[in-house]
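TL;DR need C-alpha cells for one chain.
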Amino acid sequence: MKRAAIFAHYDKDAIVDDYVIYYLKELKKITDTIVFVSCCELSDNEIEKVKTITPDIIAKFHDEYDFGSYKRGFLYLKEKLDEFDELIFANDSCYGPLYPLKNVFDKMEDQNCDFWGITKNNFGYKKNLQHCFVKRPHIQSYFIVFNKNIFTKNFFFDFIQSIKHQNTKKQIISNYEIGLTELLLKNDFIYKTFINAYENINNITILKWRQIIEKYNMPFIKKSLFDLRNNDATTIENYELLLKDYPKGLIKLPRKISKKTPFRIKKFVFDTLANFPFPIRKIFAILINKLFSFIKD
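>> reply
TL;DR here they are.
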C-alpha cells in the first residue's frame, strides 16, 4: 500500500507541540507522504521541527478549521493522487498513537470497505440545527482513511473544493464531518470502523474513552480530555495506567487533577451517566457544574 496523509494542525500560540511531532513520526512509519497543514503563521523555528519529518508544509492562516486544512492539503497533492492507494485525513486533536499504527492498518486491510475510521458517532446535529442530536451515523474525522476509488473521483474533489468558513462548530460537524460520510454512502461506498462498541452513545471518544482503550485497543486519546473541557462528563484520573508505551511527558494538563472525590466514585458516576440519552446527561452536567462541582477533575 502506498499511502499519503494530510495532517491538520492548529495551536493558539502558533507552536508545534512535542506530542504533534511524536504523532507525525509514528504516522510517517505507515505513509509515503505527509502534507502538514497548519492554519497558523508558524515561525521558522516551528517549521524546522516539522521539516525533520516532512518537507511538505503549508503554514498559512485560514478560518476553515480542520476541513479547511484537509482541503488545502488535498489540493496540494491533487496532481500526485494517482500515485497513492490510500489517503489519510488526520488532525492534532488526539494524543497518540498509544501503539504502532501498523497494527491498526493490518486489521483494517482485512475489511471489505472503501473508507474507514477509528470510531464513529451514531448521532449528530440535525441539518437545520434546530435540535441537538438525531441519528446521523458518521466516521469521526480526527482519523479517516479513503481508498483510491474514492479520492480520485470528481464528486469527492467537488466536495473538498466546496469547503468554506462556517460560523459555528455545529455547522462544521453537520456539513463536513457528517456530510462527508453521508455523501460517500449516497454514492454507494461502504465504510467500516476500527472500534465497534457502545452504539447508543453519541461520542465514545469522550464518554467511554477509558473503556475503548482497555477493551478495544483504541490508539488515541482526545486532547480535550486533558484540557479538562469535559470534566462534567468524565474523569481522567489514573489515565497514566493506560498509556502503555506512550511517553507520559507529552501530555500536558492545565492544573492538577482534583481528588476531592474518590476515584472509584467518580468513575462509577460518570460511567453510569454515559449510558443515559444526551438530554438527561445535559441536565446532570448542569447539576454537576452548579451543585456538585467537587466530583469534577
